[in-house]
Amino acid sequence: MLIKLLKEQISDFWEEINFSIQQSLPPTTTYTEEDSKTMLEKCLTGEMEVWAMYSQEEEPRELLAIGTTCLQEDFGTGVRSLLIYSFFSLKTEVIPDREYELGFVTLSRYAKFLGCKFITAFTLNSRIRQLAKATGRATEQTYITMEV
Known about the structure:
By secondary structure, the protein is of the alpha+beta class. The protein has a single domain, classed as Aminopeptidase (3-Layer(aba) Sandwich). It is about 35% helix and about 25% strand. Strand 4 (about 80-90), helix 4 and strand 5 (about 120) form a beta-alpha-beta unit. The chain is globular.
């Protein structure tokens, strides 16, 4: 079960959220203490959303992962996408595929609500790539970064 956190929840759990962001940054950035402050501001103003993934079947519900998303607009075409900016599992054991699938349904509904055509993400995690590929999502792209 994927739940979008409220501003108050973001403030209350910022230490855990901040840690999860640091552990799963996209390849396009660094993360300093100043960056952390900027990220908190963006999360509190709604420029970025924070999501908590809870177990679907266990009571009490267990926090499995924390993720962030943001709206992106293609510079040339104006096509909107929801970028999964970060996603970090808090569990050492494997999160069941069903939890990811349910989370993706939630993100898909949210992205449609925002007028997005795509959901995008970066990952180095082979299991996530395999899960995406098995469910018919494009995984062939290569993203290249070059430090200047």
